Amino acid sequence: METICPLDIEFSDEIAALLVPPSTQAVQDYCDKLIATRQCHGLKIKQSGNDGKGAYANLEFTEGELILKDQMLVGAQHSSNKVDSLVCSYCFRYIGSIELQIGRKLYLQALGLSADKEHDHETFSDTSKVSCPHELLDKRENTLMTNHDKQGVCASSDSEHNNLVPDEVIQSLINGSLGLPYSKKFTLPSVISCPGGCKEEHYCSKLCADADWELFHSLLCTGESSGSSRRRALVKFTEHANGTNDIFLLAAKAISFTILKYKKLKSTHFEAQKQHNRLKGMDDSNFSLLLEAWKPISMGFKKRWWDCIALPDDVDCHDEETFRMQIRELAFTSLQLLKEAIFDNECAPLFSLEIYGHIIGMFELNNLDLVVASPVEDFFIYIDDLPFPEKEEAEKLTRPFLDALGDDYSVCCQGSAFFPLQSCMNHSCQPNAKAFKRDEDRDGQSTIIALRPIFKGEEVL
Q1: pTM, whole model, 2 decimals?
Q2: Using an 8 Å Cβ cutoff, are 306 and 324 in contact?
Q3: Which of 128, 194, 367, 409 could form a disulfide with 201 if both were Cys (CB 3.0 to 4.6 A apart)?
Q4: What is the pLDDT of residue 271?
């Protein structure tokens, strides 16, 4: 029997209004503003009746030339990848130091933890307790994490690798008392803690910490300021997402983004009417502000997740209806957990299954892999390329760490993100552009490069 979400019925008119595709002019105006902000004046977003939105060259591009650097609207590092890469939770730059990155990784490998490289959506339980570098060795008993063998997840390094480096040496890497040769050539931003005091998120600067707090994290923080009941509910939601599909974490960020933007708009428009802050339900003026706050999400092409997700290879076509119903039920369970954590009466339509399903479907159809190259890989390559006397001397200290890391030394930051301009680009089996990170691209922005000369007016595919 199909589960019914009461909010879908109660707010059917508001949900329909939220899901109305924006007009051609609204799309044009929104994209033009983004292009001006990104300073990518060689690109123009246009909408046609046949293919929907498309990206067109506004200038000529040569082969290898940068077409677009697009800042994500919503993005997240894969949960299991946090074992391998300590990055800023907002811009996804690597943080800390080469020593911290290596020491942290070895410590977590010794616990039997690593990324699952065979699955798009990892199935690890909460890694929050093993994310904070300053507490890694003091709270070993709190860092155990369930390894879901039934999903094919395994430790990336053999036990003999883990035993190559003594615990006290790993600790000296983490606390900074042991420096590696030439690591100063790969300086990283310092680790900035979450403003709300949670141990899950870390940043490269106060600017990134404040931006993430204002746009997303203030509703999703599990620090002491969030209160015990909300904290417990958020942990349950996160554990469910990590154990099933971490696309739910992105959906939570999209809803948090909209709620926080709505509240900011309301504060601006109704400063003299603070009694409205405690309204139960929605009036017309509040809903118009919610529509405005929703606008960035409204621009993405959407379908319900359970309708648009590709049928897995191991699911028979005769079982497709059952599979899609199971996906719908999975989304409903996730939504109920999220509602327990951050439900807001004034933004109630956002917590309907119809809206939740369309948000996740938008990610399913439009998201791009979030990839940031690891400076640890660059560090070991640099050591390997040194002339003989310097290389031999450096490897006396670095080789044991490289051997202990094994093949995982080069694992990059991996995640998923929705990029508003990049998502307008259409697919071709003979593309003229590609998503490609250059050496200088060290954060989570989408970077689009020309594969061949592109003429002015030509669609970028």
Answers
A1: 0.87
A2: yes
A3: 194
A4: 64
